[in-house]
Amino acid sequence: MTIGISGPERKAPGRSAVVGFIIAAIIAAIGLILLALVGDFLVDWMWFSSIGYTQVFWTTIGAKAAVFLVVFAATAAILWANARLALGLAGRRSRLPAAFDPPLVAAAAQPDPLEFLRERLPWRSMIAASSGLVALLVAWGEVGNWSTLLRFIYQVPYGTNDPLYDKDIGFYLFSLPAFVAIKNWALLTLVMSALFAGSIYWVHGDIEDRVQQISPAAISHGSALLGLFFGVKAWSYSLDRYLLLYGDNGVVVGAGFTDVNVELPVLWLLIALSIVAALAACANLWVRTYRLPTAAIVLLFGGALLLSGIIPAVFQRFYVGPNELDWERPYMERNIALTREAYNLNRIVPKPFPAEQNLTFRTLEANKATIENIRLWDWQPLADTYAQLQEIRTYYKLRDLDVDRYWFGDTYQSVMISGRELNSALLPPNAQTWVNRHILFTHGNGAVMSPVTQKSGEGLPLLYLHDIPPVAHGGPAIREPRIYYGQQTEDYVIVKGTVPEFDYPRGKDNVYASYDGSGGVPLSGMVRRLIFAHHFNDVNLLLSDYIGDGSRIMIRRNIQKRVGTIAPFLPLDRDPYLVVSEGRMFWMQDAYTTSEYFPYAQPAPGYNLNYIRNSVKVVIDAYNGTVDFYLMDPADPVAATYQRIFPDLFKPFAAMPSDLQKHIRYPEDLFLIQARLFQTYHMEAADVFYNREDLWQFPRQPAGDGVSSMDGITTMAPYYIIMRLPGEAQAEFFIMIPMVPSRRDNMIAWLAARCDEPGYGKLIVYEFPKEKLVYGPFQIEARIHQNTEISQQISLWNQMGSRVIRGNLLVIPIENSILYVSPLYLRAEQGHLPELKRVIAAYGEHVVMKETLAEALSALFVDGGPSAAASGVTAETPTEGSAAARAQEALTHYNQATERLKSGDWAGFGKEIDAMRGILEDIRRQSGSR
Predict the structure, then answer these.
(1) How confident is the model at residue 201, as a pLDDT?
(2) Cis peptide before 758 (omega within 30 of 0)
C-alpha cells in the first residue's frame, strides 16, 4: 500500500510580484534621473543668477519644460489611447472549435508561446508604463526644438517677400522650421502608435501570418491610424511646396524651372491623392477589408515615386536640359539675388584698381602707416618664439596669438597679443593633487604683445608686454593681470578660500594672492557644497577645510563654453581674441545669427546654414567672468527676434565702453564664408553665372615651411592689416584676401572688410583690369624660388644645421600698386626658437632679400629698383672737383637716408632723398651747361 503525501502546490510568480518589480525598477530609474536633473538645475540656476542672467535661465527652462510637457503629454495620451483601444478590441474574433478544423486540432496539441503574455502580463500597467517611457524618450528628443518654438512665437517680419509664393521671408526663417518639427513629431507618433497597437493585436492572435487572418477590429483600428497618417502626409506635401525653395539641381539653388512647372503641380496632386487615401482609409472602418488600405498605400506611394521621382527627372533631362540657360535664367537670377541678400554680398562695393607700376619713396612716405604695419611675424614662428621666451613655467601656456591694433600716442600700431593662461593639467605628475588643481593654481597671469613688423638685432620680436607680472615697454599697462577665464581654463577652481592662491613664480619662491573680484558662485552653507559635490562627483568639496563661508566656486571658465551656455542659439566665431583696455583684460567674442531656411540661398560650404549675420559682439572679463552681449545689427530680423525673447540679454552697441569699441574687428569666419561665396556670386548676370566664365578662387601658396616641395600646396587665408585705401585720408584696420581666376595664378581682385568705426562692416572689392597681367602670390612664390641668390642662400642655410622657414607671402596694396612681402626665419635643426633673419620683397619685375624690411624697400626703390629711373637718378659720375664734391655730398645724403630708413624714420628718409635728388639735378644741369 502506497501512501501519497501531498502538500501545497508551488505557485508561479503572480502578477503582484511582476508588477512590483517593474514599478520598483521604474521608480529607481526615475529617481536617479530626477536626482541628476535637479542637481544640474540647481547648479545652472545658481550660476545664471551669479552672472545676472536669471531671466535668460527661466525663459530657456520654461520653453524647454513647455516643449517637454506638451510633447510628453500628447505622445503619451496618443500612445496610451491607441494601446488601450487595441487591448479592448483584441481577442474578440470568433473562432471555430478545434474539432471542426483539422489544422487547429494539430495546433491545439502544441503549446502557445504567447499564452503567457496574454494571460500573465498586467496589460494595463504595461501599457501605461510603456506609453510613458516612449513618450519620455520622444519628448526628450524634441526638447532641442525649444528655440524653434520661441522664434516662431516671437518672430518679426523680414520685410522682403520670396519671388515664388510672395510670402515674407520671416515665414521661412521662423514658421517653416516649427511646422516641419511638428510634422515630424506627428509622423513619428503615428508610427509608434501603429507599432503599439499592432503588437497588442499580434499577441492576442488578431494578426497572424496571413493577411486573411487579420481580425476586423485590427483592420478598423489600422485603417483609422492610416487615415490620420495620410492626413499628415497631405500636410507634409503642402510643406514640401515651400521646401522646393531649398533644392539644388546643379544649376539653380532653389526652385528651378522643373520645380515650378512640374514638381509644384505634382505636389498639389499628391496632396489630393493623400486626401483621397485618407478618405479611403476612413471608409474602411466600415468595409473592414485589407484591400482598400492596400490600394490607398499603393496609390499614394506609387504615385509619389512616379510623379515626384521619375517624371520630373525625365522632364529635366529631355526638355529643360537642351535649353537649360533659357529656361533657368529667371530662376538663376532669383538664386543670385537672394544668395547675395542672405550673406550681405549685395553690400560689397566694387571699385577699379589700375595696378600701376609707379611706386616711389614719396608714395611709401605718404603710406607710412601701411609700411610700418606690414606683418612680418607669422603665427606659428611667433608662437614658438613666445613659448620659448615667455611661457616661463611648464604650467603656463600662450596658446593663441591674435592680431589687433592699438593707438600708442599718435601711432596706429598693429600688434600680436597672447594671454598667458595657466593649465593645471601641465603640472608635474606628482603635483597633480586636488588642492593644487582646484585651490592653489587658479589663474593665469598677464599677456605678451609685440608689433607685427619690428624685430631685435638677434631676429627676435620686440616685446611691448612681457614677463610676470607683465611689464609694459611701449605697450598698454595692465593693472589687473590675472586670467581666471580664458580659452584653456576647463577645471573648476575655488577662490576666496582659507589659503591664498598661487599668483606667479619669483626666483626660488612663489608669490601668493587672494581673489577680490565678484566672479564665481557663492559656496556659503553645506547645502551648496553638497549640490556642487554631487554635480562634479567630488567629495572633496564637502571635506576640504580650505573652503570657507566666503568662498566662491568658478565654473564654466572656458569663455566659449561660458557664452555658449548663456546663449546656445548663437553660433560663435572660432577665434576669440584678447584685448587690454583701461588696465584690464577682456576677451572679445564674435557671435552670429544664422538660419538654414533662407529661400533660394546657396548653403555655405562646410556649414549648416544659408543665412548669417554678425549681429552680436560678446565681451568677457578675464578676471570676473562677466559676460556682456552687445547688439551690432538691430535690423537683423533673427537678432530682433532673439531680443524679443530675451529682452534683458542684449545691450545696444553704444553701451560698450568706448575704448573697447576701438578693438572690434570684422570676424574671420564670416569674412571667409562671404569671400568663398563671392567667388561665384560676384557674377550677377545670369549668362555669365551659368557659364562660370568669371569664377574666382583663393590664391595657392606653399604649405609647411614654404621651402620643401614635399609639403604640398594650400590656399591663402585672410589676414588683418593696417593700410590706407586709395583715395582715403588715413589708414584703417582691414581684413583682406586676394582673388585669382579659377585654375589660374594671376591676381584678378582683392576683397577687404573695414574693421574701424564709423565704416565698420563695409566690404570693398578692388578689381584689376582684365587686360593687364598682375602677378598672383603663387607666381611671386615661383619667382622667389627661381631667384638664384635667394635659392642659393636658402640652400646654404639648410646645409649648415639650420632650418629655413618661409613665412606667408602678403599682398600689400599701396595707392594703386601692389607690393609683395614675405618673411624668412631661421631655426636650429633641433631648436624651437625661430629668428626673423630676412625679408623678401617683390615689386614689378624685381625681387630682393635683405635683413630688414627697410633695406628690402631701399633695394627695390633706391638701389636700381623700379623707382630709380622714374625719379630721374642716373649713373653718371662727374669728373671735375666741384662735381665730385657734390657727388660726395649726395652720397652722404643717401647714406643718411638709408640709416633713417632702417630706423623707420620715413619723414627723415624723405628729406634726405629730396636733398640727394636736388644735388644730382644740379650736377646734371652743370654737366649739360658744359
Answers:
(1) 85
(2) yes
H, E, C per residue of 865-911? CHHHHHCCCCCCCCCCHHHHHHHHHHHHHHHHHHHHHHHCCHHHHHH
- From the number of C-beta atoms within 10 Å of its C-beta (0-12, 13-18, 19+), residue 562 rates as buried
DSSP code at position 777: H
| Cell numbers standing for residue 746 | 594671376
Ranges of residues in the chain with a pLDDT under 70 are 1-19, 28-29, 31-35, 91-121, 209-212, 705-711, 863-886, 888, 899-910, 924-930
- Assign residue 761 a region (left: φ > 0; alpha: ψ between -120 and 50; beta: otherwise): left
Q: Give one DSSP letter per residue of 443-507, joined into a string.
A: -EE-EEEEESS-B-TTSPBPPSEETTTTEESSS---S--EESSBSS--S-EEES-SSPEEEEEET
Q: Distances in Å between the alpha carbon of 922 and those of 626, 910, 916, 926, 930? A: 68, 18, 10, 6, 13
**Predicted pLDDT at 145:** 95
Extract the C-alpha cell encoding 246. Answer: 531649398
Q: Running DSSP on this structure, what letter comes out for residue 82?
A: H
Q: How high is the pLDDT of residue 708? A: 58
* Three cell numbers, residue 227: 487615415
Which residue bears the cell 619685375? Answer: 845
C-beta of residue 723 within 8 angstroms of C-beta of residue 659: no
- Kindly tell me the burial class for residue 488, based on how many C-beta atoms sit within 10 Å of its own C-beta (0-12, 13-18, 19 or more): buried
Grid cell 471542426 is found at 100
What pLDDT, on the 0 to 100 scale, is given for residue 578? 97
C-alpha pair distances (Å), 893 with each of 117, 384, 867, 886: 106, 40, 18, 11
Contact 747, 740 (CB under 8 A): yes
Annotate 79-105 with b (16+ C-beta within 10 A) or e (fewer).
bbebbbbbbebbbebeeeeeeeeeeee
857 and 817 Cβ atoms separated by less than 8 Å = no
Among 870, 864, 859, 866, smallest CA distance to 902 is for: 859
What is the rounded distance in angstroms from the CA atom of residue 392 to the CA atom of residue 316? 67
Q: Report strand pairing: 447-451 vs 396-397.
A: unpaired
DSSP state of 319: I
DSSP 398-455: ----EEEEEEETTEEEEEEEEE-EE-GGGS-GGG--HHIIIII---EE-EEEEESS-B
Which residue, 116, 77, 112, 82, is CA-closest to 95? 112
Q: At what angle do helices 146-153 and 637-645 cross, to 10 degrees?
A: 100
Q: Which helix (H) or strand (E) holds 722?
A: strand 719-723
> Can you tell me the distance from the alpha carbon of 498 to that of 544, in angstroms, rounded to the nearest whole number?
10
Query: What are the E-state strand segments in 76-126?
Result: none
**Cβ atoms of 283 and 292 closer than 8 Å:** yes
Alpha-carbon distance of 868 to 850, in angstroms, equals 18
Which DSSP category does 799 fall into? T
Which cell numbers in the block locate residue 605?
Answer: 560650404
H/E stretch holding 814 reads strand 810-814
Nine-digit cell string for 565? 551656455
Which amino acid, one-letter code, is at 653?
Answer: F
Helix, strand, coil % in the chain, rounded to nearest 5: 50, 20, 35
The pLDDT value given to residue 868: 42
Question: Residue 703's pLDDT is what?
Answer: 82
Residue bearing cell 512640374: 262
CB 824 within 8 A of CB 849: yes
Q: Which three cell numbers stand for residue 905?
A: 624714420
DSSP bridge pairs for 818: 813
CA distance 923 to 917: 10
Direct distance between the N- and C-terminal alpha carbons of the chain, in angstroms, rounded to an integer: 162
Number of residues assigned to the chain? 930
Q: Supply the angle between the helices 216-243 and 176-203 in degrees, to the nearest 10.
A: 160
Q: Which of 771, 770, 778, 763 is nearest to 748 (CA)?
A: 770
The H or E element containing residue 838 is strand 835-843
